[in-house]
Design brief:
seven-stranded mixed β-sheet; 12 strands; 451 residues; Glutamate Dehydrogenase, Chain A, domain 3; 15% strand; Rossmann fold; binds NADPH dihydro-nicotinamide-adenine-dinucleotide phosphate; five-stranded mixed β-sheet; alpha/beta; single chain
Amino acid sequence: MDKQTRQYVDKFMAELIRKNPGEKEFHQAVSEVVESVAPYIMKYPYLREQKVLERMVEPERVIMFRVPWVDDQGEVQINRGFRVQMNSAIGPYKGGIRFHASVTLSIMKFLAFEQTFKNSLTTLPMGGAKGGSDFSPRGKSDAEVMRFCQSFMSELFRHIGADTDVPAGDIGVGGREVGYLFGQYKRLRDEFTGTLTGKGQYWGGSRLRPEATGYGACYFAQEMLATRGKSFEGQTVCISGAGNVAQYAAQKAMRLGAKVVTLSDSDGFMYDPEGLTEEKLNFVFELKNIRRGRISEYVKRFPSAQYFASERPWRIKCDIAMPCATQNEIEKDDAERLVNNGCYCVTEGANMPSTPEAIAIFQNAKILYSPGKASNAGGVATSGLEMTQNSIRQSWTSEEVDAHLHRIMSDIHAACIKYGTEEDGYINYVKGANIAGFIKVANAMVEQGIV
Ligand code: NDP
């Protein structure tokens, strides 16, 4: 990076931090993008003159609201709800809803910012948004989750709509929560539209939406592996998380011939040296999605496995790592351990799971590394396909949806190669994804004037 570009980046970040104090995750997400796109912006003065990047980091709208509800003991509980509508230059706002105790405005803003670039990469007409609450469904009864979702939607419904803003699931928001949210939305608006995605299959949901993020990440990894003449066949894979993304990443990796040896949750991880099988994975589906249990229970059922409390899976030797739990779950030491143990491909299923220091280690070691905004875009892409099916009032087969998903993931990979290939031939997927995502949104913003 030349001196003038470095000065531009430093000044930009200093101003961002001044205006958004304490929002660590948001600073991190913006910094990664600015580092990638600044050289491109320097080449095109109109982007600087029109302050496109400065406008992109300022959400179009932030909605924060009180979510009161009554628990099963009759006690009043108060949570905080958020919707960050970041950018609508290329389509209606689109992005998931996260229910987790760790949710803050900074996390919402980082996710909404990432979402803008990810949605642009999918080639579908979707703007970027994210929402959620510091409410955690863990340990709550179904009735409590329903009351919370109804209270949350009683405010959110004013701000969303099929052509305005279309939320979906994320951490803590799966089929059950989307159902309760949609039910309340329909009741308040008296209309049945495709305002939420991730809906049940018999009431407007797309086939393969639950599978899409994990499957899409594996399709993306297949493309990356192919650049080195490799495939999943015979490879050992470490996966973190045991939720929606992790479950289907594990299923697809396994079906493509890999041995998946780890899964985790926020309490620890399980290591099964013999690898997952369809039977073992069915146990995980039932454990996590129906009984809502903990991954530690896996080792009670399958004694070939070991459980490590309060640890992450990254010290286990593997060829491919797929972080599918949460942000900043691979830190510098984890990255060093992965590389030293021979891991040569890291494909992110989660959003921003690797810290900047960890990313530097992967890229300096020249291993294959893809950021979530590229490799986990299959989820929102399939949400986009759900919106299309809802609009035309049709339901596509699994094969049709899978073919679209496959094509979208390989198109995203091609875009990363186009904008991210460096002089020595190394594919910098971070740079490729950021520039490809940026160009479309930036040009749309310029063409629409100063709004
Ligand atoms: P789920 O809620 O289904 O699963 C999340 C998993 O991650 C759980 O196993 C959870 O464990 C674990 N986890 C959550 N927080 C932490 C933490 N702080 N430390 C360690 N483990 C944690 O969520 P999803 O699978 O939907 O989402 C996982 C990631 O993928 C997120 O980063 C999300 O933003 C991203 N993503 C999801 C998409 C989707 O379609 N669902 C689309 C694109 C990205 P526990 O049960 O203990 O909380």
